[in-house]
Amino acid sequence: MNMAEFPWLTTIILFPIAASLLIPVIPDKDGRTVRWYALIVGLIDFALIVYTFCNHYDLSNPNIQLFESYSWVPALDLNWSVGADGLSMPLIILTGFITTLAILASWPVTLKPKLFFFLILAMYGGQIAVFAVQDMLLFFLVWELELIPVYLLLSIWGGKKRLYAATKFILYTAGGSLFILLAGLAMAFYGDTVTFDMQSLAAKDYAINLELLLYAAFLIAYGVKLPIFPLHTWLPDAHGEATAPVHMLLAGILLKMGGYAIIRMNAQMLPDAHAVFAPILVILGVVNIIYAALTSFAQRNLKRKIAYSSISHMGFVLIGIGSFTDLGLSGAVLQMVSHGLIGASLFFMVGATYDRTHTLMLDEMGGIGKKMKKSFAMWTTCSLASLALPGMSGFVAELMVFVGFATSDAYSLPFRIVIVFLAAVGVILTPIYLLSMLREMLYGPENKELVEHEALIDSEPREVFIIACLLVPIIGIGLYPKILTQIYDATTVQLTARLRNSVPTLAEGASVALGEPMEAPAIGSSR
Asked: Is the residue at 135 inside a domain?
């Protein structure tokens, strides 16, 4: 790989971080200047991402592009190595898009605005770094550093139980990160050479027992962030106390880090172990879909209802990753981007509604749709996108996962039928709890005290603009999914071919039946 002529990715990562360091010296009393400054920085960085993608990214190349590597700490063999391929580029674009809109959604913030926007911009660069770094030790560092802004944003600007939610978040995610460090060090020191370069680590011939342990360690770490049941309990608490901009970052970007890392580390770097763990991923995906859908149905708190909905939708990502088909894996990546957009839109609407009603309990709402007609339209459209209405991105993503898994020859027919049936049950539950939520909140019975309140005004132009910006790609991808899939198709096809080579029975035309022990692949058989 040749180094890029200009360090585009390094600039994209470091620019918002460097810009955040100037915020303390900006003369600003009421926060108006600093919010415009943060928005301009966000727009510039997003423009750099789009320019780099349009002019320096080759859609037909499945390998790492825009590669930059600089020696950082030679004594530790720590290099600043960044690059992008079909797995990371869509999520880098998503990060820039969602974070810029989250900055615009932060307009009402009046408490310590300088610190708030400093953390948002620092988080901006850190999130892009997670998707771009190609050094395992550096990946661990940016994964950890990205947690600090989230903790502070929750603990300072959150709700009544913000300290509990922030502490739970940091304990879960930091605890999971220890598994990344341990597994990364084991991979680095295995064999004759010591290296943290991800491509070099992927090329090593690990003993199958060690590879299984490494896979399990990574799955625990990334399962917390995705999140996977039963490692999910931090998410409803975090969402229950967060503000609208932090909601957008949590649902739109942070959860995608877990899915991305499972594909990048577990599947791509440990394909032999993935052949053993894939049925477990599929089962966990179905558990996520049904359990979270049922739990969401029972929630009376609006934020927690949408939070459990997010957990349910991320179950499709696990099924797609474990499908061993091009279509299934493509659907998993599409679902991550789609849910990032849809989740951000729903949580923004939650925040906007709470600012007016000052309640999150559905029992205390009712009839607000008559007085808030724009909000009524936006709530309805975003909810229809979440329940996978045809013509929107969620429908295409979930359909690809369904068809991809149903046509996979890596599993026995009875297992595929059971999984597809159970996942379909979750799909049926989704419109039930979302439409019942709309009925209670927007229709009746009316809460006269709330409906007649002067603060219950309709959405302002800024809020309409944010939702419109999110709905354009949601509908655009739903009508023409190739606009997104062409970015990562070359990478996912190459990865799927490698994963299929790790399943010995596929080469013989047989299937992996649920509950039957798989023959351990020969060491290095897929390298």
From this structure: yes
Among 341, 347, 342, CA closest to 302: 347
What stretch of H or E contains 70?
strand 65-73
Give the C-alpha separation, 29 to 100, whole Å.
23
CB atoms within 10 A of CB 7: 16
Tell whether 48 is covered by a domain. yes
Summarize pLDDT for 381-412 with one digit per residue, the tens.
999 999 999 999 999 999 999 999 999 988 99
Peptide bond before 390: cis, by omega within 30 degrees of 0? no
Kindly report the backbone phi and psi dihedral angles of residue 30, in degrees, each rounded to the nearest multiple of 5, phi listed first.
-105, 0
CA 293 to chain centre: 18
Report the alpha-carbon distance of residue 522 to residue 524 in Å, rounded: 6
| Cβ-contact 428, 293 below 8 angstroms | no
Residues in Cβ contact with 131 at an 8 Å cutoff, skipping those fewer than 6 apart: 84, 88, 91, 92, 95, 257, 260
pTM above 0.70, yes or no: yes
Q: Token pair 């920085």 is at which residue?
A: 41
pLDDT bracket for residue 4 (50, 70, 90): very low
516 inside domain: no
Look at residue 94 and give its three-state secondary structure. helix
Dig out the tokens for 288 from the structure. 């996520």
Tokens 């090593």, located at residue: 204
**Among 92, 69, 13, 91, which Cα is nearest to 196's?**
69
| Beta bridge partner(s), residue 70 | 80
Give the total number of structural domains in the chain: 1
CB neighbour list of residue 239: distance below 8 Å, 6 or more residues apart: 247, 250, 251, 303, 304, 306, 307, 310, 347
In a domain, 520, yes or no: no
Tokens of 261: 């890392």
By residue range, what is the domain housing residue 404?
8-507
Rg from Cα positions in the chain? 22
Tens digits of residue pLDDT in 333-343? 999 999 999 99
